[in-house]
């Protein structure tokens, strides 16, 4: 069999001030055809898994480009299109193929493209035709769109958060993709919208048991794969939110029923899943209390929203400034993103004592810069840390110690969240010698740090991450979800959706409809459809929102859309 594989991935925070361009991909990870290392990155596991199986099974594996950018803001349009076309051209050159198996993320958004992965997969399908198997692995902090489901035969997402299973799930996708290409299975995809968005860590209950039950379903009674798409709340895209995806062996009815059953169970758990999150002050109070009774291990404070893995800069100073104000003097900090400060430290050299301004440069939300006299303890041209079987680069880095303390701060050039304790030890800091380890990560750090921590404390300090979806100014979200709506299941679904604008010249018969069905204070509104999609209850628009309540029929014309109602108590509420 001939198998084409490639990987194009990043996670886009559409609210982030950090743009993503070609250099962002090349700085984090870029491997041309056949140049991928033997260890996988977060989203390129299928390439490594296929390479390992090729010799044993007589497969011909054609490797395309594999690239990853650290999560950030919108991807530059030219960058996305160039990388997409690079992979598509490689696929065309590889034809004929029996299967295409990709490593994607699922939350990439570019200028002009709300659904990069859907766009890529749709184009892949157009190239290979309807009979070639298309399979892909995804990160669960992503979005599920109809375009992706239509293009793919097999989709599977990491089940764990932290994502300790990314290689295992890559092998899972490869196994199913090859089985489908051999004709041994006929995969069918079912999905269910949970109408919610929430933090869903599998390192704690109730998600631990929920995911364990999902794993037990695999390979039984025709169920090939089950995934939970957590969603990514930092993206303003129509399909943002949590979903269940089930792949069955040609049993759509079973898949639909199972997806709905699991989805409703997950919705019922929605208020129990998130970690306890404290303010910076309360978190430090708790850390000092723990340290007073537990001095054998450091306390870990996770600054969860200043997390580069969520697309923010990662140069926040709020928690560190509070630790210094409280007189905490034995602290390890991983990391503060500040390429300028790194340059100054490299120029000064190891052992130099300098006055340094660091952190707080990308924006005011996560704190002001810290000005301190520091000793440059260490400089390196490439700091790094482990993440499962992969190696994550920090780029040129430096360690500085703040005067009259043992507060050691890792400054890095390549933005990255904290994954493992070796982020400290690789650059000369003994993490076990500190009272407090301050790290920038939401939960990916957990597997590595839990064994060395007296306690893990989650601190929700201010940052540029939109951490409260109930209040975030989403303009493209196309349906009611919890916690924005107390009970989204009570919301009716209208028969039409799209990006819309007000019609400047609604047809005359629509005006008559308005007068007939509405009192003067509740005139019917008219809208022009720009991009039809699927049914929702709330339609976003440049000047507000409107909701179709009750039973309604949309009347289309060349000029716009009117709404005819069948019950007099039902109307449009315009906002």
TrEMBL record:
Residues 301-476 form the Microcystin LR degradation protein MlrC C-terminal domain. The lineage of its organism: Bacteria, Pseudomonadati, Pseudomonadota, Alphaproteobacteria, Hyphomicrobiales. It holds the Pfam family DUF1485. InterPro entries: MlrC_C (IPR010799), MlrC_N (IPR015995). This is MlrC. Residues 2-288 form the Microcystin LR degradation protein MlrC N-terminal domain.
């Amino acid at each position: 069999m001939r198998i084409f594989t490639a990987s194009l991935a990043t996670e886009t925070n559409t609210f982030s001030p950090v743009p993503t361009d070609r250099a962002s991909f090349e700085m984090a990870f870029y491997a041309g055809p056949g140049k991928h290392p033997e260890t996988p990155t977060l989203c390129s596991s299928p390439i490594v898994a296929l390479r390992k199986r090729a010799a044993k099974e007589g497969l011909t594996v054609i490797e395309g480009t594999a690239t990853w950018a650290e999560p950030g803001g919108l991807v530059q349009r030219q960058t996305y299109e160039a990388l997409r076309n690079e992979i598509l051209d490689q696929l065309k050159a590889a034809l004929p193929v029996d299967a295409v198996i990709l490593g994607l993320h699922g939350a990439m958004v570019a200028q002009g493209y709300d659904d990069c992965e859907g766009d890529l997969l749709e184009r892949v399908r157009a190239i290979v035709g309807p009979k070639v198997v298309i399979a892909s692995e995804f990160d669960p902090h992503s979005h599920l769109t109809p375009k992706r489901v239509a293009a793919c035969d097999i989709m599977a997402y990491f089940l764990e958060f932290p994502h300790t299973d990314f290689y295992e799930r890559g092998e899972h996708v490869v196994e199913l993709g090859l089985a489908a290409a051999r004709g041994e299975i006929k995969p069918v995809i079912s999905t269910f919208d949970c109408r919610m968005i929430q933090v869903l860590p599998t390192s704690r209950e109730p998600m631990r048991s929920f995911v364990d039950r999902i794993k037990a379903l695999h390979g039984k009674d025709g169920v090939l794969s089950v995934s939970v798409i957590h969603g990514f709340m930092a993206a303003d895209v129509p399909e943002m939110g949590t979903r269940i995806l089930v792949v069955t062996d040609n049993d759509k009815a079973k898949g639909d029923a199972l997806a709905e059953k699991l989805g409703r169970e997950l919705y019922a758990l929605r208020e129990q899943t998130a970690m306890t999150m404290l303010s910076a002050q309360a978190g430090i109070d708790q850390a000092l209390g723990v340290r007073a009774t537990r001095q054998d291990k450091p306390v870990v404070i996770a600054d969860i929203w200043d997390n580069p893995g969520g697309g923010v800069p990662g140069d926040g100073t709020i928690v560190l400034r509070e630790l210094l104000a409280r007189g905490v003097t034995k602290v390890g900090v991983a990391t503060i993103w500040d390429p300028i400060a790194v340059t100054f430290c490299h120029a000064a050299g190891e052992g130099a004592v300098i006055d340094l301004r660091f952190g707080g440069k990308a924006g005011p939300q996560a704190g002001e810069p810290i000005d301190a006299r520091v000793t440059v303890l260490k400089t390196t041209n490439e700091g790094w840390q482990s993440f499962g079987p992969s190696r994550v680069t920090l780029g040129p880095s430096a360690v500085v110690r703040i005067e009259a303390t043992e507060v050691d701060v890792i400054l890095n050039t390549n933005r990255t969240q904290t994954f493992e304790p070796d982020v400290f030890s690789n650059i000369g800091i003994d993490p076990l010698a500190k009272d407090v380890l301050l790290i920038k990560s939401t939960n990916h750090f957990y597997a590595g740090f839990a064994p060395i921590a007296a306690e893990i404390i989650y601190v929700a300090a201010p940052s540029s991450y939109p951490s409260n979806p109930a209040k975030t100014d989403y303009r493209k979200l196309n349906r009611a979800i919890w916690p924005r709506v107390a009970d989204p299941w009570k919301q009716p679904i209208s028969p039409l959706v799209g990006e819309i604008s007000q019609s400047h010249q609604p047809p005359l018969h629509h005006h008559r409809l308005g007068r007939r069905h509405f009192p003067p204070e509740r005139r019917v509104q008219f809208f022009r459809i720009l991009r039809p999609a699927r049914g929702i209850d709330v339609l976003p628009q440049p000047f507000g929102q409107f909701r179709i309540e009750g039973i309604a029929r949309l009347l289309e014309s060349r000029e716009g859309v009117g709404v005819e109602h069948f019950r007099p108590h039902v109307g449009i509420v315009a906002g």
